[in-house]
Amino acid sequence: MALMDRRGFAKQAAGGVLTFALLDTLVGCDAFGRKVRPEATRWVRDLEMLTRDLKGARLPQTEWQAKVEELLGRVPLEDARETIDFERLARWVKHKERGATRVKTKLPRIEGITDVSFVHQVFAMRKDRAIIPHGHENMVSAFYVLGGSFRGRHYEKIEDDGTTMVIRPTSDLAYGPTQQSTVSDYRQNVHWFTALTDESYILNVHIKGVDEGKASSGRIYVDPAGETLPDGSIRALRKSRKDVLALYG
After folding, report:
1. Tens of pLDDT along 207-225?
2. Which pLDDT tens digit goes with each residue over 61-98?
């Protein structure tokens, strides 16, 4: 589909015929060729270098977590928002009744990088909606709060027999803009974020298939309201996305 210019965009928007499919194209393809300050994208270059080191087995997963947390902790909110064109994204996002709305993002052209090695997206939520509790296999992930506030709960996966997952609570914190967290197979493998405010947004980056030759999973949904074991860990049932969404979304 040929991309429209700003005048055409304004005309369609005024006429009320701008569909969300078209919006996804505009947001996802960076239709207007926007200009972004070079200093606003430096963190993307650094994140890409860390990702390449991780995928090249030069950086253990837990070190990737530590370095990414330190990196994202230095990124000014205005730079993160500018890089992903947050204002346009927030203006047009359509929130779901339950759970989080996943919005594809397009990074601007960054000198020296033709394509990044990590997946990037934004989750948008209204108050009391959630990124429901889940874990992963052979995947690392990072979150950075772009707007609003969240309750973020993390757990350490102890064992998984395919039906239940033993998890140990590690943190239960409030997260505001610029605060971040990470997960990997080796630290805090299960997480759960609930929006405390309307118009809450969180940037997610993740890398699948970190260890070659090992299968990667999508989300593994669990119900943390399971049996509490003597050491404080929880025997949580693995459930379908539909079931966990109904409980916590």
Report:
1. 999 988 887 778 999 999 9
2. 999 999 999 999 999 999 999 999 999 999 989 999 99
Residue 107 lies inside a defined structural domain of this protein: yes
Q: Which domain holds residue 150?
A: 18-248
- Tell me, yes or no, whether 11 lies in a domain: no
CA 134 to chain centre: 13
Confidence of residue 44 (pLDDT cuts 50, 70, 90): very high
Q: What is the pLDDT of residues 126-148, one digit of tens each?
A: 999 999 999 999 999 999 999 99
Q: Confirm whether 120 is domain-assigned.
A: yes
The whole-number pLDDT of residue 35 equals 81
d(CA 53, CA 90): 33
Residue 24: give its domain's CATH number: 2.60.120.10
pLDDT of residue 32 exceeding 70, the answer is no
CA 32 – CA 26 distance, rounded (Å): 8
The answer as to whether 179 is a domain residue is yes
Residue by residue, DSSP assigns 45-102 as HHHHHHHHHHHTTSS-HHHHHHHHHHHHTTS-HHHHHHHHTHHHHHHH----SSS-EE
Among the listed residues 147, 149, 153, the one whose alpha carbon sits nearest the alpha carbon of residue 132: 153
Strand, coil or helix: what is 27?
Answer: helix
Residue 98 near residue 241, CB atoms below 8 Å: no
Q: What is the Cα–Cα distance from 128 to 243, expressed in whole angstroms?
A: 17
Question: Domain total for the chain?
Answer: 1
Q: What is the pTM of this model?
A: 0.85
- Cβ-based neighbours of 121, under 8 Å, separated by 6 or more: 102, 103, 104, 105, 203, 204
User: Chain-centre distance of CA 13, in angstroms?
Assistant: 29
